[in-house]
Amino acid sequence: MAENTEPGRPANNAGLWSSARSWLGPQGSSFSREEQQFLLLAVIIGVTSGLAVSLFRMAIESTRIWLLGSEIEPGFPRVVLAPALAGLVIAFLAIRVFPRVRGSGVNQTKAALYIYDGYIPFSTVGGKFLTCSLSIGSGHSLGPEDPSLQIGAGLASAMGRRLRLGREKVRLIAPVGAAAGLAAAFNTPITAVLFVIEEVIGRWSAAILGSVVLSAVSSVVVARWFFGDEPLFRVPAYELAHPGELLAYASLGVIGGLSSLAFVKLVAGVRPRLKAWPTWSQYLQPAGAGLIIGFIGLWLPQVMGAGYEFIDQAMHEQYAWKMLALLAVFKILATTISFVSGTPGGLFAPTLFMGAMIGGAVGSLERDLFPQLTISVGAYALVGMGTLFAGILRAPMTSVFMILEVSGNYSIILPVMISNTIAYLISRSLQPTSLFDILSRQDGLHLPSMEAQREDAILHVEDAMRPPTTLVLLGNELASAALERTQRAEGDDFLVSHGDGGWSCISKEALTRTAREGAGEPLVADAAPVRLPLLHPDHSLEIAMRHVQHAALLPVVHRANYQQLVGVLSLSDVVEVYRKAAGTRSEKQ
Amino acid sequence: MAAFVAAAVALFVITSFAARYFHAHHDSLADEWYARGAAHLEGGDPEAAIRALRNALLYNRDHFQYRMLLAQALLRAGHGEEARSYLLTLWQREPGHGVINLELARFAAARGQVHETVRFYQNAIHGLWPEQAEENRLQARLELSRFLLDQQMTEEARAQIMAMAAEMPRRSDLHVTAGNLFLRAEDDEQALAQFEAALQQDAEDAQALLGAGRAAFRSGNYMAARRYLNQATEAGADSDAAELLQTTNLIFEADPFRWRLGSLERNRRTVRAFEQSLQRLRSCAQARGVDLEADVPQAELALLHQRALQRKPHATLRELRRNPDLVEIVMDFAFEVQRASARHCGPPQGADLALLLIARQREAAEQ
Lengths: 589, 367
What we know:
The structure holds 2 protein chains of 2 kinds.
Chain A: H1 13-24, H2 33-68, H3 78-97, H4 106-114, H5 122-138, H6 145-162, H7 167-186, H8 189-201, H9 206-227, H10 244-275, H11 285-299, H12 308-315, H13 321-340, H14 348-369, H15 377-393, H16 396-407, H17 413-430, H18 435-442, H19 450-455, H20 461-464, E1 472-474, H21 479-487, E2 493-497, E3 503-507, H22 508-517, H23 524-527, H24 541-548, E4 554-558, E5 561-569, H25 571-588
Parallel strand pairs in A: 1-2
Antiparallel strand pairs in A: 2-3, 4-5
Helix pairs in contact in A: 2-5, 2-6, 2-7, 2-9, 3-5, 3-11, 4-7, 5-6, 6-7, 7-8, 7-9, 8-9, 8-16, 10-13, 10-14, 10-15, 10-17, 10-18, 11-13, 12-14, 13-14, 14-15, 15-16, 15-17, 16-17, 21-22
Chain B: H1 2-42, H2 46-59, H3 64-76, H4 80-93, H5 98-110, H6 114-126, H7 133-150, H8 154-167, H9 172-184, H10 188-201, H11 206-218, H12 222-234, H13 239-254, H14 263-288, H15 300-311, H16 317-322, H17 326-345, H18 350-366
Helix pairs in contact in B: 1-2, 1-3, 2-3, 3-4, 4-5, 5-6, 5-7, 6-7, 7-8, 8-9, 9-10, 9-11, 10-11, 11-12, 11-13, 12-13, 13-18, 14-15, 14-17, 15-17, 17-18
């Protein structure tokens, strides 16, 4: 993330009062009118997205009951016919009526942010609502969270355009809505905020964070109004009985990482092949996928739909480890089939399902092999969810907090962190490009990779600055004496220390002119009255770039003592460092 | 902005109506499936009940009673681990619920987890019961007492049994149960008190009579033991009563220190006791392969035999008549032989057992 702190200024008591007054007073308030409007809009977006996603959740559930019946395990022929017939309708809608509804919704929101200036057609909101209600409700192995993210983003985009906000604000408003949509779908405000920052925006500032948080909180308040505030999963009590258990969770991290890899490779490999089929087949692919999933559902109905109720059962040890492993394998297959066929729907819920089953299988097997370890299979299932989330969706921070939020169980944090980190590292090292990046490239969109950005080294001032070996003049010394000193020094530009922590820069030419032409006995300070912004070694080079072009030299001073010069920086120094960094990146690519 | 607020309000109204219908529909589905599940369970089909109750939970996943009934259905269907998992989740929500704690205690007891078992049983005893609280608490305490006895935690068990006895209603079957538990906890006095309390309500209760007889027997009150065991036998108690009664009678017949016993009978009994003990010694030595005729006896039994032969001339009717003090000496020796034989050759039977019990009674009296 880029550092946002501005270069330091020397202490100035007179400035403190004016700063406080501007912050507190009505005139010149620190929040501009537009920013205030934006924050208010964030709340409205949150409320509206919360309402929309609440309706969406009800629509999915109602569709499921209507198409598959009220039983948890639907019978024949509904289980086969429902997803197949729904697939036909979905294909028609997605191709002819709502062309932007395909995909999970995450990449589409990022595309709005980075390519289309925040534009998401309002019809996409309705289309996503309709098609995903049908797809998930009919039993396709997809989830509602990602579509909710896009629904929220779409609503926000529509509102932003309606209000004729500035271009930058319209672009930023989509993620604000995205956070609201995701928060309402998951009932997890922290997860939603973190995911949007980690995966969609990739950075945060006070303004962005404030609006994203406000919208997420507003959205969750609304969702809880209709659905209650119970955590998504009730997990049996867990406590770490023996440190050796952490090794067991580490093994889950390894298995989870490899499983994540398998899923990503499968989706990435099969999707372009199906997209290459004739155009007319696109109308039949969702139906074909539905048919296959229906037949799988005859045997394993658990793999249909989002599958939360079965995750709950896995956490309550309702399945033996072989069954859990089987469910994990077939969920990977079913989700791949649903997703690559072009059926709209999300990947969050299937990822959690796979993780719960894999975690439960590993935990159950380890309990049989090592009965002396007090292994809670439910805890393994819970940790497994986060593990696969980190491995597939590659949002490591979000995955940790998500588990804490959906379970309300803080004691699980150590195993979650260990397992998630291992899975993330394995997935990252064996598959450097994340799934979302692969999908966007397959769609012809070159979106910035948040993961790659995180991995990019941030350049700092200390990478570019030179040691302070150049001559430093004093502001209170005579210009003539200073000029004499400069004759023996190298360079044409010199820093001037004013003794109060302030610094200036003066060229030899200006000094000469002052010494010769100045009235009386001019001081160096008289020739260099303009104070320079001060840099510190830990400042990012991006901040230095804003100032370095306005002066020949910039001082880099110690944070605890502004009079202590630790380096000097010029434009050529900065350019040289960027040039070298670009060269290194080219070699890596 | 005002238009958006208005739109949000409109959307809120629509969503509220939709939510009302949605939740009402879900609630009715949940109730319907729950009713089916309860009916299946009542009808003895726990597997069908499980399926129906899982459907009910789909529409109301946090319903306590649904989960509770599902846990019970799982138990009945033999899916213990799954049931335990649900019970633990329920316990997190209601840690003081009596039924949940009782079931979890049973699980822990089956696994031999002492600490967990005691904790859950205590929770069940002091927890909240929706119905039949007293009976259920009693049942929990009873099970806990049995568990503690099985774990050889006699002191803890005794404390529980005493608490149970203090709280339970005055019913003869409960007194008998408490009495039997006190017997297992080796508190014969309390056991006898419980059995006598049972007999106050039903003087012909065979189990109470047998229990009282046992308790009296173990505490050395053979008079009371014989009385109770006689009544127990007449009341149709099992064969244990007869065997115990026989031993009691042998004690009475063999004890030379009985009150108001004539000197002739006392001397006869003393001689008989000596002979009996000597016979016991010889049988035991033979069984152990000890050479009683060795010139320099090493084994305890051989040494005792040598001493017995030395005392034999004194263990006659004539010698005892001449010197009544010899009764004490001869009997002490007989008791010593019986104890040594019991140590080397295991618990005696019949007359030997009677002599050993008389020895213990004497020892207890002297202490």
